[in-house]
Amino acid sequence: MLGMVSRRALYATCALGIAALVQPSAVNAEGQGPSGLKYYKSDTKEFWEHPPPDWFLGDETQEQKGLAPKDGPPTGISGAELQNNLKNIKLPPGFSISVYAEGVLAARQMAWGDKGTLFVGSFGLGNVYAITDQSGKKTVKTILKGLNMPTGLAYHDGALYVIAVDKLIRYDNPEDNLDKMPEGKVVYDDMPSYAAHGWKYIAVDKEGWFFIPFGPPFNIGIPPTSVSQIRRVNPKNGLAEIWALGVRNSVGGDVDPRSGRYWFTENARDWISDDLPSDKLNMISKIGEHFGYPYCHQGDLPDDKFAMGHKCSEFTPPVLNLGAHVAPLGMKFYTGDQFPAEYKNNIFIAEHGSWNRHNYQGARVMRVIADPDGKNAKQEEFASGWLKGPQDFYGRPDDIIVAKDGSILVSDDWAGAIYQISYKKQ
Amino acid sequence: MHKTDGRAQPGHYVLCFQSWALPMNAAWRLPCSVAAGALCCGLGTAALAQNDDAKAKFEPCVACHNADGISTTENIPSLAGQTDRYVQWQLVYFRSGTRKSEIMNPIAEPLSNEDIRDLGTYVAKLPAAAPVAPSHADLVEKGRALAAQNRCSACHGEKLQGNGAAARLSGQREDYLLKALKDFKAGKRVGGGMAAMADVVYPLSPDDLPALAAYAASAR
Q1: Which CATH superfamily is domain B137-218 in?
Q2: 0.85 surpassed by complex ipTM
Q3: Which positions in chain A touch B207 (Cβ < 8 Å)?
């Protein structure tokens, strides 16, 4: 970024990036507007392919220096060490946790096939896995390789759908072709290709449309109009609707079996402090709602720079504030029959845990109880014990899925493992 | 590659060596002809003398990276003192093909998770090369300013000594650091799971890269 000072002076044209008084040779579409707000000039191809790296770097204070995203053990955790780690996991009485599968490196979103195959996405490794079960013995197979951060996937109408940043890809009849997957067909690609907050999640609704989040490519800024939103996409024909605006980084959501409404987790902005702002659980009541980013955080905290005169009351408040830097990712309503009756339609949220808080928190599974309209929401810890000291992990839960027998599975991209949590009446 | 209980076993080394035979003859020996002598020496003395599992696993690496893990070959990185997690991630990326290298992909392909862990631990324990003596003071000063602007130390540590999955840069070969920066800028490498380095390097001017490499190699 040499010469940034002089470039900044040249860029100083407007706060919202509407006007353009910039040489075409400039490579970093970032600057300082007259109001003092950093802005991003998003009308260049360059911005969309190479947004500035400040989704994780650049907005930190002196005290926060050195806090950076942590990559886990590259080959995961397995065998005795993994079993040992599970001994520390605390659960409510009657519940137990076991390893469902190991060696599922960088495991992210999970989806069930019709014939009982568990499909699992991954992060930077680019793999999609299929886990099959032959009378209790699990086999983990890498069925797709080389995809661009295929964190999200769904199984719908006999096909596996994988979302790899800017492509929603359909693979027909996967369960009969695990050894040689059919060629994928891109069914939707109206998505930017940048990596930052570009990894996604899929929730299928009752009409077979997919809810898909679009994160902004930075920590905080005025988002380009095509991101910071949640779209509803029809995988059959590529039709898309914008269902929510003002959403930062969401990598989890589920359709409420009671109402059909979409609920989703959201990671709040970074670098205010260790305790602000809170990450959120949201619900969309009607199409087009605005959830506040970047103007207002946690429903009641106007951004000190980006509020720009907006009040928090203009936006849809969260159903529940989940805590600062807990990093809520995958979530599911509990629709099984194995757990006690009071768990029915509760929400399980996988918290990935902090990376830029001095004392990490999260890295656990939370239980949220809320009415169908979002009222009376409260949360409690369900499974915890993956934090290792102030800034390390034994594991990082990142997705939940309900199994046929009513147990839940939890994916962990740190350990590269899938856990099973079961209940037995005492 | 093979099972181990962590103890040396009779015949163990031979087994390990056989599994390396293919890539050694095929892909990686050719570009490293300069260092081929090191391979022979390494096999003849050091490795055989020390019947140590991780060391045996490292044996195929010494032709290019040298037995002490300090490279003497242009554009080949030193591995000594590199962070365990960085080495493991790179091997995982080479194995999956996420990071492309004609030499390293076939070498990493047959590695088991255990091999990768052993190799990471082994090279991390080798004493790192001393910070490179700065050749051009001006370049180093320019690089220092660029490193501060771009917050290299946020991930790589205050002395660029490496931290977790972020690589040790101090003491690394300057030519290799420059190559890595160019590869990131060109999109040939993306870096860690979150594409961090590709994003960071992209906006830099080509003139900035030699300065950053010079500073990082000499950081102390």
Answers
A1: Cytochrome c-like domain (1.10.760.10)
A2: no
A3: 2
Q: Where are the beta strands (DSSP E) in chain B?
A: none
- Find residue A99's DSSP bridge partners: A419
Domains in chain A: boundaries? 4-52, 79-423
Global pTM value: 0.84
How far off is chain A from B133, nearest CA to CA, in Å?
24
- Residues 6 or more apart from B99 whose CB is under 8 A from it? B90, B93, B189
Q: Show residues of chain A in contact with B92, CB under 8 Å.
A: 74-75, 105, 125
Q: What residue segments make up the domains of chain B, in order of their start?
A: 12-125, 137-218
Most A CBs within 10 A among B158, B202, B209, hence the mutation to make, goes to B202
Please give the Cα distance from A141 to A145 (Å, whole number): 11
In this structure, the number of other CB atoms found within 10 A of the CB of residue A402 comes to 20
Q: Rounded to whole angstroms, how far apart are CA atoms B49 and B36?
A: 20
Predicted local distance difference test score (pLDDT) of residue B49: 38
Partner-chain residue, chosen from A1, A51, A196, that has the shortest CB–CB distance to B150? A1
| pLDDT tens digits along A8-52 | 333 333 333 332 223 333 334 566 665 667 777 778 888 888 887
DSSP state of A42: -
Average pLDDT rounded to a whole number, residues A337-348: 98
Which of the listed CATH numbers 3.40.640.10, 3.40.47.10, 1.10.760.10, 3.50.50.60 matches domain B12-125? 1.10.760.10
Neighbours of A257 (CB within 10 A): 13
Does domain A79-423 match CATH 1.20.1440.20? no
Q: Is A74 on the interface with B (CB under 8 A)?
A: yes
Contact A125 B88 (CB under 8 A): no
